Amino acid sequence: MSNQWQRIVISESTIFIIHLADRTHWVTLTNIDFRKVRISKKTFDASKSEWFLYDSLYSPDLLKSASLRNFLTKLYSHANMSGRFQLLIPDVQQQEGKVDCGLFALAIAYELARQNNPSGCRFDQYAMRDHFRNMVATNNFVAFPLLSNTLAFNNSYESKAFNLKKKPNLD
């Protein structure tokens, strides 16, 4: 296992921004569950967690990504998970065009870190790139601009079960 995985600690509020090289695409993966009360660190068990994949350019074909499979396999091995776990795909704002996925992945991760449900956020996509440039120029990371954070959303999730004793079955 590479050194980068040895430094990762899986907690009850882990957030990853993942580049899927085979799709030239960025997504956000977390184990933060907005459907229920936060789990305490004392009872957190990485092997029993559900993982949530936030994708601003979702297509069912994404689940066949070799990069995603590779990441999930490494995550599974690192966390010493056994048996099956759930990958849930919450509803999230879909971007216009194909070039802003990295900005959306950052904005979603930021909202997750603030303990806000990104499914209820509607980002101002046309202001995101300038906002990001300003954050880099000023070395000041702040919330991405929102059109609204009161979107009506349901708590329905597309769900995939994985048995990672073998390679992830994302079909």
Detailed description of the structure:
26% of the residues lie in helices and 21% in strands. It is of the alpha+beta class. Strand 1 (15-20) and strand 2 (25-30) form a beta hairpin.
What is the topological layout?
Layout: H1 3-6, E1 15-20, E2 25-30, E3 50-54, H2 66-78, E4 84-90, H3 101-113, E5 122-123, H4 125-138, E6 146-148, E7 157-163
Parallel strand pairs: 3-4
Antiparallel strand pairs: 1-2, 2-3, 4-7, 5-6
Molecular shape: globular
Q: Which sequence of SSEs, written as H and E, runs from N to C?
A: HEEEHEHEHEE
Which residues sit in consecutive blocks of at least 5 with pLDDT less than 50?
37-44, 161-171
Give the helix proportion (percent range). 25-40%
Strand content: 15-25%
What is the topology, as strand order, of the major beta sheet?
1-2-3-4-7
Q: What Rg do the Cα atoms give?
A: 16 Å
- Strand tally is 7
- Given helix and strand content, the structural type is alpha+beta
Number of helices: 4
How far is it from the N-terminal to the C-terminal residue, by CA? 26 Å
Could you report the average pLDDT, rounded to the nearest whole number? 78
Largest sheet: 5 strands, mixed
Give a brief rundown of this model.
The protein is α+β, with helices and mostly antiparallel strands. It has helices at 3-6, 66-78, 101-113, 125-138, and strands at 15-20, 25-30, 50-54, 84-90, 122-123, 146-148, 157-163.
